[in-house]
Every structure is written in C-alpha cells, then in structure tokens.
C-alpha cells in the first residue's frame, strides 16, 4: 500500500548547484522537506530524491540558500494520474460503445432484399412492414415461420422466402414463382389464321389442310391452314393445324408527339439543409428548414454510422442540397427519340425481320411505314365436328 501511495504521489530527483548546499540540507530538515538518496558530485553539486509535491518548497529553499535547482527525473505522480484518468475515460467510452452496439444489434436498421426480379424491392419492403418487419423493429420477438406464411399470402408471386438477421442487418432471400407455360390440348382442333394482312411468301405446314398459296394476298383473320381434314374412306376429321406462313407485310403506325418540355437554366448558389437521423426520425439542424423551395433540384445524401454488411447504428447524417433553376422556353419535340421508340415497339411485335422503314413527319405526329418479312400464322382453336 505504501508503494502504491508513493507511486500515485510521485517522486522526483533533482540536482542542486551552489556553495550553500550544507545550509540547504539543514533548511530542508527544519522545513520538513524529506530528501533521500543524497549523493555529492563535487564540492558544490549534490543529487537528491524527494516527493513531487515538495518541489515548489525545495525551489524556494534553494533560492534562499543561493543554490540553483534542476529537475532530473519525474516518476509517476501527476503524469500517472493523468494517464490513469485518460485510460479510464477510454474504458468508459469503450464500455458505452459496446453497450450501444449490443443494444443496436437487437433492432433491425438495414434490410437487404436478394433474389427478386419481377417484384420490386419497395413492394417486398411494404409487405414486410405489413407483417411487422421494418427498420427499427425488435427482431428477437419476430417469428420467422409466421412472417414467411404471411409474406407468401400477401405476395402471390413469391414461391419461398426467408429472413436472416446478422447484427442489425436483415437479409431477405426470396424465390419468385415461375410463370406457367401455355397449356393446350394436343388433340383439340385448331386452324391457323392470319394475324395481319400481307402477301404469302412461303409456307411450312406440318399438319392440316393448306388453303392459300405462295403469292396470294391475305387479310387479317383469314384462315390459312384448316384443321378440317377430308377422308375419302370415312367422315371428315378435325386435327390441330401446325406450321408457319411467312408473308410480306406493310405495317403502319402513327406516333403522336408530346409538346416539348421546358428547359432548365441553372442559377448561382445553392441551399444546404443538414439533418440528424435517429432511427426513423429526423431532426433538422438549421432554421427555416420547412420553407418551401420552388424550382429547385434536390439532391439527398445519406451517411450512416456502422460497418457495411455487418451492422448499422440508428444514427446517421442527412444532407439535402437544393440547386435553384429557372424554366426557359419550351423546346421542340424529340423527333429522334419518338422514331426510336416507334421502331423498338415494331421490332418487339414483329415475328420476323424489318426489311425497310420510313417516317412521315406531321405537325403533331409521326407516321411509321415499314416493309417486313414475318410469320403471320396464329393458332385459333375450333370445335370438334
């Protein structure tokens, strides 16, 4: 205990120079300033040890005895107390951080959706919120089986899902249902009709009775291959017509143009709104943050506290940047964009190739005329005779 108390009080070793070192030792004894490990280095120099708290008194005694004092070493004392205090503060901060991390890991602050293609992330998150899983929820009370059953009932496109929680991060794994293929009766009677009018260029019939020939002009809805087969030895029978009929077609499309949008001209300056996020709540750090800002582009940047992929604290910083602009006169309609969209739509609905196309520009629309070579055969089921 004495050693520990001495370490906390602190020790010092000094050098005393001058001709009055004898008087100085006597004065220290009378003043109650203990010295130890006294060693003389010549007639006018001595080294001694003392408590750190006695250094100011020894300095005054040395000045009265016409001696010069020089501190050679300081051990423990105020420096150790300062280090102990600093380390204690760090320990407190580390304990508080560990406690916050432990408490934060019991709540979900980040949700990741994996495996979705047809369903958007927003749709899945809204369905999860209806099932009781959202940012800030206490996940130890969540029942995974109940959540899975509720999600499968709410989202008909889901075939399977599971929820994995690691720290404060939740990962939702989903598997979407596959679309059922078209089911038809192979023995049901069916004809092949023309999906659009054109000139027959070639036929490839696998089953059925051909009603048109090459070079013949057909109209939309006309029967190309019939499923009614005549039999010379018995009654007529109905089959399912199969095959393809390639024809030259000349589709025409009218695309109405929307009026040109107004252009933006940037203004100088910007406005910055900084907010502090705690969970789902946000607290703005500036005044008049709710003031309406007209004709401004808004850029939002979110900064969160945590380690990506592991955990996230419910603390974050939100920065909103508003850049003002003025609206200029309306620009001309985007003709090239309209042509590209019209051609892409025609390519999507054409079962073949587009040989050529041209555009006729009008005041409020564009007329697309194309020359295509495509399969116009369309299956239409009929009743068995």
Report on the structure:
The structure is a single chain. It is elongated, with a radius of gyration of 45 Å. The protein starts with a helix and ends with a strand. α2 packs across α3 (55-64). The strands form six sheets. Strands 9, 11, 15, 16, 22 and 23 form a six-stranded antiparallel β-sheet that branches. Strands 17, 18, 19, 20 and 21 form a five-stranded antiparallel β-sheet that branches. It has four domains: 2-79, Malonyl-CoA ACP transacylase, ACP-binding (Alpha-Beta Plaits, 2-Layer Sandwich), CATH 3.30.70.250; 110-176, Roll (Ubiquitin-like (UB roll)); 189-260 and 332-385, no CATH class; 262-329, no CATH class. The protein has 385 residues and is α+β, with helices and mostly antiparallel strands. β22 (352-361) and β23 (365-375) form a beta hairpin. The longest helix has 27 residues, at 78-104. It has helices at 2-9, 21-31, 55-64, 78-104, 121-130, 144-154, 335-349, and strands spanning 11-17, 36-40, 45-51, 68-75, 110-114, 158-166, 169-176, 190-194, 198-207, 209-210, 217-218, 223-226, 228-229, 237-238, 242-249, 252-256, 262-266, 271-278, 281-284, 296-307, 311-330, 352-361, 365-375, 377-381. It is built from seven helices and 24 strands. It is 24% helix and 43% strand.
């Amino acid at each position: 205990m004495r050693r520990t108390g001495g370490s906390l009080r602190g020790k010092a070793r000094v050098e005393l120079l001058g001709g009055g070192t004898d008087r100085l030792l006597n004065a220290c004894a009378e003043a109650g300033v203990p010295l130890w490990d006294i060693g003389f280095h010549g007639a006018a120099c001595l080294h001694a040890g003392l408590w750190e708290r006695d250094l100011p008194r020894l300095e005054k005694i040395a000045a009265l005895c016409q001696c010069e004092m020089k501190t050679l070493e300081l051990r423990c004392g105020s420096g150790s107390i300062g280090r102990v205090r600093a380390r204690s503060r760090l320990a407190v901060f580390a304990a508080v951080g560990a406690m916050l991390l432990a408490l934060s890991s019991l709540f979900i602050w980040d949700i990741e959706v994996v495996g979705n293609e047809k369903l958007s992330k927003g749709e899945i998150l809204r369905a999860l919120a209806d099932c009781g899983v959202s940012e800030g929820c206490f996940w130890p009370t969540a029942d995974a089986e109940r959540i899975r059953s509720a999600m499968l009932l709410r989202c008909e496109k889901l075939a399977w899902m599971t929820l994995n929680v690691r720290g404060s991060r939740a990962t939702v794994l989903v598997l979407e249902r596959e679309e059922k293929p078209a089911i038809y009766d192979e023995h049901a009677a069916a004809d092949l009709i023309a999906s659009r009018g054109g000139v027959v260029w070639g036929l490839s019939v696998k089953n059925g009775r051909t009603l048109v020939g090459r070079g013949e002009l057909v109209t939309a809805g006309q029967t190309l291959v019939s499923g009614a087969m005549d039999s010379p030895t018995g009654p007529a029978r109905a089959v399912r017509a199969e095959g393809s009929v390639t024809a030259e077609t000349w589709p025409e499309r009218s695309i109405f143009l929307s009026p040109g949008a107004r252009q933006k001209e940037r203004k100088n300056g910007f406005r910055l709104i900084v907010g502090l996020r705690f969970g789902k709540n946000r607290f703005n750090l500036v005044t008049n943050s709710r003031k309406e800002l007209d004709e401004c582009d808004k850029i939002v940047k979110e900064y969160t506290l945590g380690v990506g992929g592991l955990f996230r604290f419910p603390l974050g910083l939100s920065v909103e940047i508003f850049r003002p602009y003025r609206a200029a006169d309306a620009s001309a309609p985007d003709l090239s964009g309209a042509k590209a969209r019209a051609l892409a739509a025609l390519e999507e609905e054409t079962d073949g190739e587009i040989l050529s196309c041209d555009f006729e520009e009008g005041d409020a629309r564009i007329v697309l005329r194309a020359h295509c070579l495509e399969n116009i055969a369309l299956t239409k089921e009929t009743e068995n005779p």
